[in-house]
Amino acid sequence: MIVDAMGVDTTEFIEYRQWSMNMSRDDATTWAGWFKALGDPTRVLILHLLVTEARPMNVGEIVAALDVGQSTVSHHLQILGETCFVLVERTGTSSWWRINDRCLACFPSAAELIMGRLPLTVPWDDTVAACASDGAC
């Protein structure tokens, strides 16, 4: 047991901190892409809309809901798709966009790891590879 000056056992924090220092470059690259993708308010609004609607939506529906131009929405969906935050299903001439729940489940834990505060469980054990920015969603 490791106790700090206040008498608090810091063993778990130190173990978590040491583990976070072993972050791989591949994981760091993936997570940096996630943060970059969220660096635009329109993309955050698109994700929020898809999460709250809880159903696949086409570009026209997203445009109508956000009052943003079609080309702008399409551009942002492409970026969100490249980072695997969203998935697309093409049916004929329609594209239906939906949240990729697997990658969104990883995001808060990735943020905690980056900040040196690991959660008790790590949901990306088999998911980071699925959420990598190489297009393999």
Please describe what this structure looks like:
The chain is mainly alpha-helical. The chain has a domain at 25-114: Winged helix-like DNA-binding domain superfamily/Winged helix DNA-binding domain (Arc Repressor Mutant, subunit A), CATH 1.10.10.10. The protein has helices at residues 11-20, 25-37, 41-53, 59-66, 70-82, 101-114; strands at residues 86-91, 94-99. A two-stranded antiparallel sheet has the order 1-2. Strand 1 and strand 2 (94-99) form a beta hairpin.
Strand content: 5-15%
Count the E strands.
2
Structural class: mainly alpha
> Main sheet: which strands, in order across?
1-2
The CATH H-level superfamily of the domain at 25-114 is Winged helix-like DNA-binding domain superfamily/Winged helix DNA-binding domain
CATH architecture of the domain at 25-114: Orthogonal Bundle
Identify low-pLDDT runs. 14-20
Order of helices and strands: HHHHHEEH
**Largest sheet geometry:** 2 strands, antiparallel
Mean pLDDT: 77
Gyration radius over CA? 18 Å
CATH topology category name of the domain at 25-114 = Arc Repressor Mutant, subunit A
Summarize the model shown.
Helices cover 52% and strands 9% of the residues. The protein has helices spanning 11-20, 25-37, 41-53, 59-66, 70-82, 101-114, and strands at 86-91, 94-99. The chain is elongated and about 60 Å long.
